[in-house]
Prior knowledge:
Layout: H1 4-28, E1 32-40, E2 46-54, H2 59-68, H3 70-80, E3 90-95, H4 98-110
Parallel strand pairs: 2-3
Antiparallel strand pairs: 1-2
Helix pairs in contact: 1-3
Amino acid sequence: MEGKRQAKIARLLQKELSEIFRKQTAMLGGVLVSVSAVRVSPDLSIARVYLSIFPSEKAQDILANIQRQAKTVRYDLAQAVRQTLRKCPDLTFYLDDSLDYIDNIDRLLEK
């Protein structure tokens, strides 16, 4: 069960990461990266970030690029939350494919 502090920090990280990715993807054009969920470990040292990437054809390439740039993203995040958090958690990125799953179910039901 997630505590109040974990939930509060997860919401803060989600908001700030969304803003970071919005700024970075504005330069790419045609690519949308949204943070669908953030899960923080009980000791607040690790944050699992679930990303929804559109278009989904480029999702694996963009996720691999984000994972290569994880230290830069963590630094930008640390600068954004430095007034709130003493230590920024380590970030691990995962692809959230729940929208693709829902779309697939809808297509199957239409048949």
